[in-house]
Amino acid sequence: MTRVDLLRVPWVGRLVRSRWPQVLLTVALLTGFVLAIVAGLAGTPVGNRNFGIVGVWIAWWAALMLVAVPVLGRGWCGVCPLGAVGDWLQRGAVLAPGRRGLGVGRRWPTKLRGRWLQNAGFLVLALASGAILTQPRVTGLVLLVLLLLAVGVSLVFERRTFCRYLCPVGGFVGLYSQLAPIELRVRDKRRCAAHRDKTCYVGCAAGSGCPWQVYPGALDRNPPCGLCLECVRTCPYDNIAISWRGFRSDLLTAPGHRPDEAFKALIMLGSALLYAAVFLGPWGTLKEAALGVGTGAWLAYAGAVVLLLVGVLPGAFLLAVQAGRRVGRSELPLKRAFAVYAGALVPVGLAAWIAFTLSLVLVNGSYVGAVVSDPFGWGWNLFGTTGARWAPAFTGLLPLAQSAVLIAGLGMTTVVAVRLAPQAHAERPLGQAAPVVLFALGVTLGMLRLLVG
Amino acid sequence: MTGERVARLLVLAAVVGPLGVALGGRLGRRQGSAVVEVHARMASDGGWGPGAITVGVGDSLRLRLVSDDVMHGFAVGHTTIPPKDLKPGIPEDVTLRFDRPGTYTFYCTRWCGVNHWRMRGTIVVSGVGAEAAEDDREPVPVALDLDLDAPHPAAAVPGAAPDAARGWPLVAELPNADRDPEALGTAAPADVYLRLRADPAHAHRTDEELWNLVAALWLSAGSPAERRVGGELYAANCAACHGEGGDRRGVMAPALAASLPPSTMPGRGRPADFTDRRTMLGASSALLAGKILRGGMGTGMPNWGAILTDEQVRALVAHVWTFSLSDHQP
Predict the structure, then answer these.
(1) I need a surface site. Which of A416, B46, B102, B302 has the fewest CB within 10 A?
(2) Residue of A421, A248, A405 lying closest to A321 (CA atoms)
(3) pLDDT tens-digit series, residues B214-265
(4) pLDDT level of residue B329 (50, 70, 90 thresholds)
């Protein structure tokens, strides 16, 4: 697909280069974030009447999964209030570029780089999701801890260390941003190579050096870039493009090759299955164990989930990749093939999350009206919508929509897996890809069983 | 004002705004002290909060009732105040006024969990009123000095369920002394059956006929309207443990047994089986009323004396007899 450089559209270019739209959006989201914390901690403990639960896990989650990630990729990270507060403190400014603010600016230890900490963080949140998603106090506490952690890390370590190495949401968004039709890249790499000052990385009077520690001239995938747009402002040659491209571009042009990223894809995929089973499945005992955080039943549940997500599922995928290597007579080492083909699971994983989110949102979306008028559950009626009844929407179409999304995800995974085969140096590309596609088919059928029946 | 300053003010407002709104809301609620906010939570999480409220006779008591977890209900015992359902997180306002001093019990009317019956609180109404809410008269079971915990096996048991309908014509033939409601209220059906069996005047009747007669005598103690009220009270308050058909197969029965500590008392933790004629026909109406009023210490059976009126208890007893003295079908 031909790329369309959006920054060449005059009004888009003006919007992106000005800091105001980004700051205003971030401040609005920060208001919502603080409101969610306060409502969670001080409001009603009834989840569906508390903004902490409804605003975050229904409204925000729906916007993230159905719009932001599939369409804008890392777009959320560009306006996320969690990382913005630390960023402002580091720069000593909210709007003005290039100032010196607070913070020691130490480098993040080399040994802790990579996605393992993000994977662990996401796993911990997944294990406690029964409490986080249903109890406002726990949600408020988790959001507050994340905010304090993000600010604390930014005061000790350089740039967006928290966003890049620790934020569990950032890891999730980054993984699936590979599919997004939006990308930030340089227009001419030779211009970057020739640019001695590298203002995009070190900063200048027009803006900060890349907070995400990325050199745009070498950027070939979406995950490392947080779409903070600083490089658009600091490049003296107007050499940055934000383009509309085809879906799945990263997966084919720059497949992942690291085990931490492969595990991330598998943990996210397994988590989608887990959430669907716990929150939408018919197993009361499972749900009870997941909700009873800290109880003996929950410990057993947590152990089983860890085993499933970091043992059984990756093990099964490893067997599928190994079978593909044998059938396809691939020369690629197993470890490398495992990492490369994990990228093929990104479409089916995103489809699983979207399908799960559709259930969540269409069934529970009507709670949003009530909490907007009464965010703390104290009997207010600010906008006259407190009495809005719970009214599931379009549930008749839900199975159809979920099936379509899941099948589309499987189709995209199949295309990616087949087109990755040449990179695996396989003599029989289809034979190499087949077991991976079968693995994805199993996951898709599992999701269909859980969501559609 | 520079753009940077405006941006900083916006950030400040974003952080302080929600905190200010919450704080203002809290203070506003406290200043509106005329309203008492009462939170309902399952008994295991604290029950009613506050659990004790005071008010003067004739004063308006404005309550804002909020369920913090599941569906609850609010009602006040010994009053005609209609019950109020409390949906989770949706405040309900009620205004109460008491004409008589005393201690009233408010309670949950929805089966919110195995310890639902523990969800009780008190409203102490002080001052001078027409008459005290608490009846100074001794309840009949106390006046009779009944041992509510003693086993009461029936001295005789019919082979099949008696048919009260066939016993009605025979009741009219009994002398008035045998139909005295007060005497029947303190007697067990099995004892009355044995007395009639021993009476030469009934020697010509079969055992089945006599049991039909006894059943008719007992069921005639309550009017159809009273039994209907009793049925409604039973469905609302008793069926969850004792079962809709009185056979202790209520949905809460297994959880009730599991919730009680291990006990050496046989049968403790299992609701009474009202269909078991071997025990039921050895009990009197006064004994059943006593059990309802006091409850079963340590058995999970709540005391209803603080909630039900004497008329309601009588209606309930009249309904309970239908399980063992007729071919009652739920």
Answers:
(1) B46
(2) A421
(3) 999 998 888 888 989 999 999 999 999 999 999 999 988 888 777 776 654 5
(4) very low
Residues A274 and A169 in one domain: no
Separation CA B188–CA B156 (nearest Å): 10
* Minimal CA separation from A257 to chain B, in Å: 40
Yes or no, beta carbons of A31 and B18 under 8 Å apart:
yes
Helix locations, B75-198, DSSP H:
140-143, 164-171, 181-185, 189-198
A214 in a domain, yes or no? Answer: no
Q: How many CB atoms lie within 10 A of CB A67?
A: 12
Amino acid, res. B215:
A
Put simply, the answer to whether B15 touches A20 (Cβ < 8 Å) is no
Which pLDDT tens digit goes with each residue over A134-172? 999 999 999 999 999 999 999 999 999 999 999 999 999
Chain A residues lying within 8 Å of B6, measured CB to CB: 95
Q: What integer best gives the mean pLDDT of chain B?
A: 88
Q: Is the pTM of this model over 0.80?
A: yes
CATH number of the domain located at residue range(s) B35-126 in this protein: 2.60.40.420
Residues A44 and A157 in one domain: yes
Read off the DSSP letter of residue B262. P
- Domain count within chain A: 2
CA distance B166 to chain A (A): 49
The secondary element (H helix, E strand) that includes residue B278 is helix B277-280
Identify the domain boundary among A179, A212, A245.
A179
Q: Which of B66, B67, B93 to substitute to test the interface with A, most A CBs within 10 Å?
A: B66
Domain B140-325, CATH? 1.10.760.10
Do A174 and A282 have their domain in common? no
**Boundaries of domain holding A88:** 4-179
- A155 and A267 together in one domain: no
ipTM of the complex: 0.90
CB pair distance less than 8 Å for B14 and A96: no
Query: Residue B8 and residue A50: Cβ atoms within 8 Å?
Result: no
Give contacts of B13 with chain A, Cβ < 8 Å: 27, 31
Contact (CB, 8 A) for A6 and A242? yes
Q: Which residue's structure tokens are 């999480």?
A: B45
* B89: chain A residues, CB-CB within 8 Å: 44, 46, 48-50, 377
